[in-house]
Every structure is written in C-alpha cells, then in structure tokens.
Amino acid sequence: MAYTENEVLAGLAEIVAEETGLPADTVTSEKSFTDDLDIDSLSMMTIVTHAEDKFGVTIPDDDVKNLATVGDAVSFITNAQA
Amino acid sequence: MTTPRDVVVTGLGATTPLGGDVASTWRAALAGESGARTFDNDWSVKYGIPVEFGATIKVAPDEVLPRPEIKRMDPSTQYAMIAAREAWADAGSPEVDGDRLGTVVSSGIGGIWTTLDAWDTLREKGARRVLPMTVPMLMPNSATAFVSLELGARAGAHALVSACASGAEAIGYGLEMIRSGRADIVVCGGTEATIHPMPIAAFAASRTLSLRNDDPAGASRPYDTARDGFVIGEGSGIVVLEAAEHAAARGARVYAKIAGVGLTADGYHITSPEPTGDGQRRAMAAALAESGVTAKEVVHVNAHATSTVVGDLIEARSIRGVLGDDADHVALSATKSMTGHLLGGAGALETIFTVLAVHDRQAPPTINVSDPDPELVLDLVRDTPRALPEGDIAAINNSFGFGGHNVALVVTNA
Questions:
Q1: How far does the signal peptide extend, from start to end residue (chain B) (predicted)?
Q2: pLDDT in tens, A28-74
Q3: Regarding the domain delimited by B7-249, which CATH topology (the fold level of the hierarchy) does it fall under?
Q4: Across the interface, do B129 and A19 touch by the CB < 8 Å criterion?
C-alpha cells in the first residue's frame, strides 16, 4: 500500500528530526535541506538511506542532488512508490 | 640545557561503571563499591557465552547526550565525549588558541558496535542500507576526532593504540606534546565500549575472563588467591593536561603534576607478559627518571592488576624490583577490583584515580581480597582508603596491554 504525500512528509520529518535534533514539526515542505536545516552531504545520505528503508523506494544518487527542499523529497518518494 | 616544561592536570572527566562523572566514580571507589553486575541480556543462552556479567556503564549515554549525537557516534565515542565535556568544564573551559590545543583520545578496540551492526545490516538488508556514517563511527580515531571538532583543537588529534595501555599511552603522548612545545593544553585519555557478545566471546575464548557468574561483584579480585581472570568493563576517562605556566597565568585550579612517562615493549609474546617483568620495570624506571623522582618519594602505586593469575604477580615483583626496599612504604591499590577492566579506558581512569589519590592524599581501596596471595610482596590497600603522607609525594600508574605494551606515568603533588 502506497504512502500518501502527507504520510511521506510526516515520516520524512521524523527521520530528519532524528538526524538533526530539530523538532519534527519544523521540518516542513518549503525547508531547504542545506540552507534551512543545515544538513551536510553525509547527513543527507543518511536520511536517504533511512527513507529508502522506511518507504521501500530507491532514490538514486543522481536524483538526490535535485532534492533541494523537503517538499522535493516528499514528491520524489511519493512518485517513486510502486 | 633548558628544564622541560612542567605539565599539570587542570580538568578531569569520566563516565564509568561506578558513576556518570568523576565525583560519583571517586566516591564509589573510596567506598569500595563494585561496578560489576549480571548482564541484562540473553547472550549466554543465545550464543553460549560462558560469562554472564561485566562492569557495565552506570549512566547510559542516551540519558546525557542528545539523540543526533547518539546516532552519529559509536558508544566508545559517546563515552569519550561525555568525559571530555566534563573534563573541559572542570578545567574552567579555558580560552586557548585552537592551534595550541590538542587531543589524544585512544581506544583499545575502536568502534566495534558500529562495525558489527553495519555487518549485520549488510548481511540482512544489503549494501544500500549500510549507513554513510559507518566509517567515521567505527574508525579508532573517531573519539579523538569528535573531541577535537567539539573543542576546535587544531594542534593535533591523535589516537595511540596499545590495547589495555592505550588510555595511559594517550596521556603520556599528551605530556610529550606539551613538553615538546606543540601544544599548551591537551585533552587526553581513553575510552572503550566492548560489552557486545562478540568481543566477550573472544575474550572468553582466550581464557582471560573471570567465570564467577554467581558473584559478579566479587569476581574482580586482584592479588586474591582465588582470582580467576578479569571482569570486562566499559567507559571513559579524560584529563586536561596543561603547561604549568599556562595554567598559572589563567589562575587555574591544579590537581597534580604529570611528572613523567615511561614506555616500553616486552618483545616477548602477543598476550602473555614477559615473566621477569623486565619491560614493566624499564617503563617505571624511565618514568621516574624523566620525573626526577626518587624511589623514596613514591608512596602510592595504582597497579594495572587485572585479576589474572599470572599478570598480577609479575607486576608486583616488577614494582619491588624498581623501588627496592622503598616499596615497603608504597600503598598499592588495584582499582579494577571495583571498576572492572575498561581496556582502552583503563589507563586513563586509573590516572584520574592516581591524580585524585595524590591530590586528596588518599589511596583508594582494593576490594575482594579475602585471602591475599602469599607471593604478593607489597602492601595492598584493602577494603578502605588509606591516608597518604603530607609533603612532597609521588605516585605511579601502571598500564600494560596485549602485545607487550608497558606504560608507567608518574604523578606528583602540584
């Protein structure tokens, strides 16, 4: 069963919160991973690994660099679900 | 010839089987408490591990560190970070140019939880699930690197590895960094987090662990005739070493002086200490010579004494060999009787004990010695602390490791 966009956002926010220590409710769609959430490339790959595990998707490295905001990642994951 | 720089201890930090900081650890040690307890797990049943207890950390790191740090650091680094923060605050969080600040934080084994967890993940879920932080978490320099990042220490971040002598060797190297002029302050010590079924099975396989499952608190009994091996422990000890003139200029509180270090190797056997104790004697003699301390001034030794049948007595004879008749007035303490063996953390925690013994003029006790080995040729402090004399005094902390590593540190009153 596929996750809805809201479910992906909530799940991703939890993963980001675990990694950064930020409250999950501050991880909103318009936030930039690098500029707003201060996430470096190593943390980004950690988040991707956890997200792939949680949502059962694959996020190729070439696509990761296009995920500027939380919303970008939510869209990608939602669409990537089988 | 110029006089070498005096190096003093201005900060202490620890998280151990006896307590989550130095004060609680020292208090428990003086009270003769044991940090050994039965494991709260099924490893014995599940894997057939013959050892069912150890000296586990008293305060879990997730009670102290924020969640993202727990996720980004191996337990060995978590312990070191907790101890380093305490030590740094205890030193008064000195303002120092980062180029003059170093770190030397060692581990005997490194990030083994991370290593084995990642291997489990790889086998169970495949390569894409192995976390990107795995390498920076498992590398043996991880603790020193994280402490260096935390403090902005740029004079050098080192991690000398010599098994169970690692923590003491780190402090010895910190001393040399300051003496050589590379740094004014060095945050140094050791850490270990190996209470995982694989290393316990491996230590048990080498027949070095106590099997006293029915009495964990009584299992670590250095110099007792019924000793049957060491008790695995975990935790970290960190000290802030500082050039004496630097400490004086900022009006820092000084615990004691690290007056000298001696480092030798047995070149004999990969695990067994050389039977005559020649390497141990040479390490102690070198440390005393560097310190300018005579045998007469040595009033206390914190022994490596892990509670193994062979090792304890070799060390006792080595101490007697170096100090001669002056060994008669040495109060010998074997604090692993209480803390268990912190492996790479041991030499650092025992340096803290030695520093506090000199500072407080009080040698900590050795517990569980109901029937002292008749071959023990030294005066063991048993059950309750013993007062050390007034005036100028010196103490030795010995640490030895698998591989034939011998480290002796000499501590004197400030």
A1: none
A2: 999 999 999 999 999 999 999 999 999 999 999 999 999 999 999 99
A3: Peroxisomal Thiolase; Chain A, domain 1 (3.40.47)
A4: no
